[in-house]
Amino acid sequence: MQIEATLTPADVRTLIERFVPLTIRLGGEDHLTLDGPLDVVFDPPAGIRIVCRAKARWSVLGLDVPVTVRSLAARIVPTIGRDEHAAEALVFKLALDGADIAALPEVLDEKVTRRVNEELASKHIELAWSFHDLLDRAFDLPASVETASALAMRVTSAAVRMTTDVLSFRVRLDVAVERCEATASRSHAS
Questions:
Q1: Mean pLDDT of 62-89
Q2: In what order do the strands lie in the sheet with 137-140?
Q3: Among 143, 147, 139, 140, residue whose Cα is nearest residue 185
Q4: Which of 40, 54, 94, 158 has CA atoms 20 to 30 A from the CA of 31?
Q5: What is the 3-state secondary structure (H, E, C) of 56-117?
């Protein structure tokens, strides 16, 4: 058995718009706030490319410096990975591809982008969904079913696929029926 969910760029844009403004802590008082408007493009195999405005608070020599980001290019990479408990999960990793920071030369823009990516990687800033928690289940059948007591599902594999038009998440399930023992059947009294 297989279950598949698909998202279009418009679906992803709508979902991200529900998150913004989105503030990501980068350590201490430093943070990055992503804001609209958004441009969302599926770019396989690189991931979901997002261009938006942003603001940042950056500590420089002990001073908190507010920074305006005219344009920020970020990338969300969907993969099958592991969550913090080492369970298989659908993971969305975030990385910056570039930033056009007001009042900074391009060389410093690149340094800030590199520094933010280092912080994102070191703090494991990602969204992970442990789908096994939801999908690995056993369901008791009603007593009126005499020959079986439960239906059990277990995830056997998962995959993420992206084209320029669609992002899909597919899960394969092994489905088993737990049978009633002949001597302990649920049959009615004769």
A1: 83
A2: 2-7, 167-179, 148-162, 137-140
A3: 147
A4: 40
A5: EEEEECCEEEEEEEEEEEEEEEEEEEECCCCCEEEEEEEEEEEEEECCCCHHHHHHHHHHHH
Topology (CATH level 3) of domain 8-131: Bactericidal permeability-increasing protein; domain 1 (3.15.10)
Of 49, 25, 56, 43, the C-alpha closest to 125 is 25
pLDDT in tens, 108-163: 667 777 777 777 777 667 888 999 999 999 999 999 999 999 999 999 999 999 99
Helix (H) or strand (E) holding 11: helix 9-19
Q: Which amino acid is at 61?
A: L
CB 62, CB 29: distance < 8 Å: no
CB atoms within 10 A of CB 15: 11
Cα–Cα distance between 38 and 57 in angstroms, integer? 21
pLDDT in tens, 1-16: 999 999 999 999 999 8
Residue range(s) in the chain whose domain bears CATH number 3.15.10.40: 8-131
pLDDT of residue 86: 78
